[in-house]
Amino acid sequence: MEEKNKLLTIGQFAALHGINKKTLMWYDEIGLFHPAFISPENGYRYYNYRQSSILETILLLRELDVSIHEIQHFMQNRSAASLEALLHEKIIELDRSITHLKAIRKTLSNHCQNMHTLLTMDLSEILLVEKEKRCLVTIEISKETSFDKEVEMIIAETQKYQLRRLHDASYGTMIAVDDLQQGNFDQYSRLFIEIPFPIKKKGLHIQPGGTYLRAFHKGPWDQIPYRYQEILDYAAKHGLTLFGHSYEMGINETVIERMEDYITQIEIPCQA
Question: How many CB atoms lie within 10 A of CB 72?
């Protein structure tokens, strides 16, 4: 493109920038981006190659969902300072979107893994698995905590961490191993929320990495104590020491109709 002063037809200029020529016609009509020359004889629009950088800036801003009104304001007050301010604002918005998309991807991956588990697991099996350390937001509860209060606290935490929807995170319940060993199988002490993006805040619960006993329970929650007794018997038989908390999480809510089909995953850290 040596002759940069040479005029290009609207079709050539549109093709050069990968857009439809109707877009250029519309930009001209609303006063956003005018052609370098309009033939007085036939009204054909022509563009100069040097206009490319301006058009690319407009197209970039449109790709960032900047409104036509905002772009018009920028074009009327174009400067390095105004462009820097506008781009800085959009970078912040873009970073938020990237973080949200990463969170969605992690949530989808978790759901996909849960579906794979459903298709391949043996519900009667108790097995050892390795897990990485993770940080959890926890909410203290007791037998006296009402369901309405639990919902209220969960909503407050999801708003605090700017989750857009309830299922942007994984939820579950925790019960101390000490209570399990004393037969207090309904002594749940915390709800947990796994935020699907990195957070650095004080007061988070650290779920340790390492070896876990994993088991599944199918059916209503009031039958879970029987499964816990089987887990305790398994640990004793194999010389395993359980510690910390048991982490419970439903893994098939999205694909069942009846509570009888509900599957709870139970994971408890252990050591030989």
Answer: 15
125/46 Cα distance (integer angstroms): 73
Task: Give CA–CA dist 158/168, Å, rounded.
Answer: 9
Helical ranges in the chain per DSSP H: 10-16, 21-29, 52-63, 68-76, 80-120, 147-160, 177-181, 224-237
Structure tokens at 266: 């139970």
Q: How many CB atoms lie within 10 A of CB 118?
A: 15
Per-residue model confidence as pLDDT tens digits over 41-85: 999 999 998 899 999 999 999 988 889 999 998 888 888 898 888
Distance CA 62, CA 23 (A): 12
CB 140 within 8 A of CB 188: no
Amino acid letter, residue 201:
K
Exposed/middle/buried for residue 145 (C-beta within 10 Å: 0-12, 13-18, 19+): middle
Yes or no: say if 52 and 43 are a contact pair by the CB < 8 Å rule: no
The kind and range of the H/E element at 243 are none
CA of residue 255 relative to chain centroid, distance: 21
Q: What CA–CA distances, in Å, run from 213 to 82, 83, 129, 232? A: 58, 56, 6, 10
The answer, as to whether pTM is greater than 0.85, is no
* CA of residue 256 relative to chain centroid, distance: 24
Amino acid at position 49, single letter: Y
DSSP of 201-213, one letter per residue? -TT-EEEPPEEEE
Measure CA of the first residue to CA of the last residue in the chain; give whole Å: 72
